[in-house]
Design a protein that fits this description.
The complex is a heterodimer of chains A (117) and B (112). Chain A is globular, with a radius of gyration of 13 Å. Chain A has 117 residues and is mainly beta. Chain A starts with a strand and ends with a strand. Chain A has strands at residues 4-7, 10-13, 19-25, 32-38, 45-51, 57-58, 67-73, 76-81, 90-97, 107-108, 112-116. The radius of gyration of chain B is 13 Å and the shape is globular. Chain B starts with a strand and ends with a strand. Classes of the chains: A mainly beta (117), B mainly beta (112). Chains A and B meet through strand 5 and strand 10 of A and strand 4, strand 5 and strand 10 of B.
Chain lengths: 117, 112
């Protein structure tokens, strides 16, 4: 089945640090990848849609300069949280769709638990 | 706009049935169902497309009522492993690159 790998699984760092999270599709090519944030006992909130070779599309209210997204290849997208602060602490999850398109599901990575001290 | 799921939570005894609903105010192209266990990533269950589809996988099935813009997930003869939070994700227009908006989730607990 379709496998999406996300790294790292968890990060603890000091306020002001920038953190980079990688999302890889291991056995399929993903034209589009998605980044979500999830707070405890809440839903998955879409942050941005990442398209290979072009700029990401951010959802309303998401700061582009704070959450930098790069989708350099059909198998890799990265999310960088710049100058992270305690309020950025959350569970960040990526997902990817097979480039064959059509009625394909999103396959999720295992998520990254980010704690900013 | 976020779809609305109901109920918010449900507790079942093993072997009982449950229905989870997902309603949208927008015209939908597809509805996706996922289950998430605590601390883990969501796991894909099934996709339903407009046209009134109904799908099933073992004892979990779902339907999509295009007129009502509503999907329902049916869990029959529930097992302990069904416990988790169920999310519906809705796609309102084709060619939006598969962007999904998720409901607030339904927490399902199956007790022995």
């Amino acid at each position: 089945g379709a496998v999406v790998s996300q790294h790292p699984s968890w990060v603890i760092c000091k306020s002001g640090t920038s953190v980079k999270i990688e999302c890889r599709s291991l056995d399929f090519q993903a034209t589009t990848m998605f980044w979500y944030r999830q707070f405890p006992k809440q839903s998955l909130m879409l942050m941005a849609t990442s398209n290979e070779g072009s700029k990401a599309t951010y959802e309303q209210g998401v700061e582009k300069d704070k959450f930098l997204i790069n989708h350099a290849s059909l198998t890799l997208s990265t999310l960088t949280v710049t100058s992270a602060h305690p309020e950025d602490s959350s569970f960040y999850i990526c997902s990817a769709r097979d480039r064959t398109g059509g009625r394909q599901p999103q396959h999720f990575g295992d998520g990254t638990r980010l704690s900013i001290l | 706009q976020q779809p609305v799921q109901s109920p918010q939570a449900v507790i079942l005894r093993e072997g009982e049935d449950a229905v989870i609903n997902c309603s949208s105010s927008k015209a939908l192209y597809s509805v996706h169902w996922y289950r998430q266990k605590h601390g883990e990533a969501p796991v894909f269950l099934m996709i339903l497309l407009k046209g009134g589809e109904q799908k099933g996988h073992e004892k979990i099935s779902a339907s999509f009522n295009e007129k009502k813009q509503q999907s329902s997930l049916y869990l029959t003869a529930s097992q302990l492993s069904y416990s988790g939070t169920y999310f519906c994700g809705t796609e309102s227009t084709y060619n939006q690159g598969g962007k999904l908006i998720f409901g607030q989730g339904t927490e399902l607990s199956v007790k022995p």
